[in-house]
Amino acid sequence: MKSKKDLFKIGIVQISIFVFMIIYFCKISPLIPYDADDWLFNGTMRLPFPMWGVFNPTRVLPEVLMPLGGYLASLIIFPFTGKYIESITFVDAFIVSIFLVITLYTFYLLLRRGFNYSINTSLASEVFFLLSFFLIFKHVNVPSASAFWTVDLTCIFFYLIPGLLNIGVLLIIAKSEDFNILYKKYDKLKKGFFILVLYFALFSNTQFNIILATFSFSILLKKAFEKEYKGKRIKEIIQTNIIYFSILIVWGVTVIFDLNGGRANGLSTGSSFSKSLLISIHSFISMLKGINKYFLIISVIIVISSIVLSSLSKNYIENNKFLWLNIELIVSSVLSLIYLLLAYAKSIPSYASRIDAMLAVLLLFLLIVGLDTAYLINRFKCIKILIPLGIVLCGFIALNFNCHPIYSLTGGVNPGTAKKVDMYIINQVVEADKEGKSVAVVKVPKNTDSNNWPQAFYLSSGLQNSLYSQGIISRRVPIKIKPDRNINYILSNSLNSENFEPLEK
């Protein structure tokens, strides 16, 4: 039983992470609705189940969670602040921070209960796991991304959150030797809650439920070689592994649904599959080049050394479990990579160059590194002594913001400019509503894209739904988007930015 001191220690770490991440997503790299997709999904909620033939058949979680954030922002925060965009930023930062903290805490529970590591070791490893999200793409004194980066606010909900949720469920399953046995011991409420979480994890995004599908497959692959399964009937094997088989079946259903959806039908490379696959592979390699080489080298050393040391250890039971989990995660990451490269080759090969689109693989990689770091910390006393120094040094590197991070904003605009553009557009709709106009002709920056992306022409429906459903306008005013180069001055910088000069050269 945990003492009050232990509970305080665990609680303070989780709360500190939560508060920091809210500050990060509100102030350091703020989440701001800016492009047409952001406004489309911010104010329109879908039905919470898969739908055959629609544009996004199985992306249930992002398409209910993102508008829910918009509703909460307008109903709870906006009345007190009077700042619409800032209210959305705060609520969305709150939501993604909750998912991150829960994922990190399940990682802590895996170490604490799954491997029986001490509280201090588990908490320290949790902090290192968090810092790895910042360190993996960190390049000091130049703008750099993190594993939290996405193209825009929409992709925070469509990519980052589904990735975190699927990793969280994976960690829950990995906590026990056989989750099917543990699940049977759950009471009805706990079983129901797990099914709820699993439902939204699987019906979130087929680019991320692949995490659970490949992990379940790797577990079943391991069991296929175990003596106790030889000679058993297929029905019996399925019954004793019902959770893993169910995940694979539902994942297969989501893929079938998505292949018959509007988005899949509208995506075509126009090239031969082999050529598209090569482009997809080259795109992924270009993304890998953005990884900090020192982080990559240290990570590889950590993984190899922990696997070698554990395989030579005399503590068979503990190290056997550790080794198998490593193997399962490595198999999952390789299979996920192959799946994504094939999927993008069939649709848009350049997606493989994006951090957010390849996040399933990156999350599995960071999880392996985090798990193996924890193993080394637990095994060697000399490393435990260096934990405070290691956390502080990694923290200073990760949180070195001499140059701003690369923002999750389409077109690379800065947050201040994005807010100005948003308010300029919104104010035109609000004025048209107040004046009782039959149509709101809304001037937006003129862009080079034929659809005027990011303020695309379909911004009209998404913006109207957001502003009406969230009480900013009193009626559904028809909106006509009018690109106007005369207002592009909002996007231009009034002052030139000088190159950064490091303190120590």
How would you sum up this structure, described in words?
With 505 residues, the chain is mainly alpha-helical. It contains 20 helices and 2 strands. Strands 1-2 form a two-stranded parallel ribbon. Helix 1 runs antiparallel to helix 4 and helix 5 runs parallel beside helix 18.
Task: Briefly characterize the structure.
With 505 residues, this protein is mostly helical. The protein is built from 20 helices and two strands.
Observed structural traits:
about 500 residues, mainly alpha, 20 helices
Topology (SSEs and partners):
Elements (H helix, E strand, L loop, with lengths): L3 H25 L7 H7 L17 H22 L2 H31 L4 H17 L17 H22 L4 H7 L2 H15 L7 H15 L9 H7 L1 H18 L2 H5 L6 H16 L4 H20 L3 H31 L12 H21 L1 H5 L1 H12 L16 H20 L5 E6 L13 H11 L9 E6 L21
Helix pairs in contact: 1-4, 2-20, 3-4, 3-6, 4-5, 4-6, 5-16, 5-18, 6-8, 6-16, 9-11, 9-15, 13-15, 14-16, 15-16
